[in-house]
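(Fold this chain)
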Amino acid sequence: MIKFLDLEKINNRFRDEIDSRIKTVLDKGWYLQGTENEIFSSNFAKFCGTKYCVGVANGLDALTLIIKAHGFGAGDEIIVPSNTYIATILSISANGCTPVLVEPSLDTYNIDVDKIEEKITSKTKAIMVVHLYGQAVQMKKVWELARKYNLKVFEDCAQAHGAIYEGKRVGNLSDAAAFSFYPGKNLGCFGDGGAVVTDNEEIFKKVKALANYGSDYKYHFIYKGVNSRLDEIHAAVLDVKLKYLDSDNARRREIAKYYCENIRNEAIILPKSYSELSHVYHVFAVRTANRDKLVDYLKSKDIQTLIHYPIPPHKQEAYKEWNTLSYPISESIHSTILSVPISPVLTDDEVDYVVKSLNEYQG
């Protein structure tokens, strides 16, 4: 069986280092907001090219706290792609803001930057981009619109750790950015985890306080905050794995390039990348007209697959007020998209077998 993602194999590569760092945490007996968080936050900020990083409990909290720290709320609109994981949109709703959906590009699956301006109104406060599947959004037009209309720009980097746009890593392309460290991410911990990165000291301090019950120092509360903190064990694990992220991403790109050059099947549409470093291939997402048939076929070949994602946000029951709306590009993607195995621990033989199997598929 070729697993979609073999987390045991991925993490066992660093087992000795991880065991050592976890032992350090246990020996100290300090489990929250300690030196491991300080070390990782400093190293991850440097990796992203930002001045500040705050570890939080998960990626959704990171997004929610960014909006909250900017003071946006009821009556404010935030532009967001219609093709994304629902957490992006939930973070907007959680702050009482109104999500304004923009269709994606069928080439990149990211927000279509040429369709953003028509959705901007007097109520628009920010544009939230999502670097979906691991590919950085082409940000030039987004920056231009932000300057023209005096808007903030936020990034959802949950799937794109290390992706690069015009010489800058994601996380350093906006006013503030959110990361998830869910175990299956390119940089994942051993449970839920997340972070906010920014160059803005005021936003950094506000997010840090908001995530700690609204406290700026012990038993003193300046905001109505929440409890959203990255624990010391997760921070230690992430700091070990961070050193290997670039090489892991390079292996993902190598596999993706091989897939793109060798999968030759008219029934399968391959992903596109606009530059070599823009994509870190969190997933390798193909499209096909008869997805269920391809899923069953690959299952018969002992190849695991996943769907990212089967139902678009505007068709979810949670947003029933949108259920009658039409976003045809998003709907097309969600009905045809399928992710096949890609990870830094896939062997060349496994990669060849995936290619051979896809080429033999009769759609």
Observations:
- Residues 245-262 form the longest helix (18 residues).
- The chain has a mean pLDDT of 98.
- The chain has two domains: 7-102+110-242, 246-360.
